[in-house]
């Protein structure tokens, strides 16, 4: 299934969550078994070398991390909003348009040197993804790859990750916000 066909499965909702934003909704892609399978296969095909863990960013990243991890023979690592994981965690703050947020992983999630692929449904400004890379690296992971179903290249997130030495794969790109 070509990227144009995947893009056609992604619904655009204008003015959500606020006026001027074109929200790229993957729920319509998730409803299509062939499209979902193709998206997962395309991410798997883009992986370079062995991976120990696939880190999915809350919450839509979890949906893609699990099938990709199974296919790669890797585990799934949950990157969650702070306060959502039981047990000891390590966390990383990052800037939002109006304020800050914090993501966390379990402190004992992996041994130093684990090779981690980062996954989320969409990359826009890259704030959350860059925070996840910092967090994973702080915990001792080797993070050199990230995959996203959607890229909004005008917002620069994928380029910001590339500047940090991350090979970025995205399946479809949409202009604008």
From TrEMBL:
PANTHER family: ADENINE PHOSPHORIBOSYLTRANSFERASE (PTHR11776), PHOSPHORIBOSYLTRANSFERASE DOMAIN-CONTAINING PROTEIN (PTHR11776:SF7)
Gene Ontology molecular function terms on file: adenine phosphoribosyltransferase activity
The protein's name in its UniProt record: Adenine phosphoribosyltransferase
Transmembrane domains' residue ranges: none
Pathway(s): Purine metabolism; AMP biosynthesis via salvage pathway; AMP from adenine: step 1/1
GO cellular component: cytoplasm
Keyword set includes Lyase: no
Functional description taken from the UniProt entry: Catalyzes a salvage reaction resulting in the formation of AMP, that is energically less costly than de novo synthesis.
EC number: 2.4.2.7
Family from the record: Belongs to the purine/pyrimidine phosphoribosyltransferase family.
Quaternary structure annotation from Swiss-Prot or TrEMBL: Homodimer.
GO process terms (BP): adenine salvage; AMP salvage; purine ribonucleoside salvage
Organism per entry: Sphingomonas koreensis
Uppermost EC category: transferase
Keywords: Cytoplasm, Glycosyltransferase, Purine salvage, Transferase
Top-level lineage group: Bacteria
Entry-linked InterPro entries: Ade_phspho_trans, Adenine_PRTase, PRTase-like, PRTase_dom
Pfam families: Pribosyltran
Entry keyword Cell division: no
Domain Phosphoribosyltransferase: 35-152
Cell compartments where the protein resides: Cytoplasm
Organismal lineage: Bacteria, Pseudomonadati, Pseudomonadota, Alphaproteobacteria, Sphingomonadales
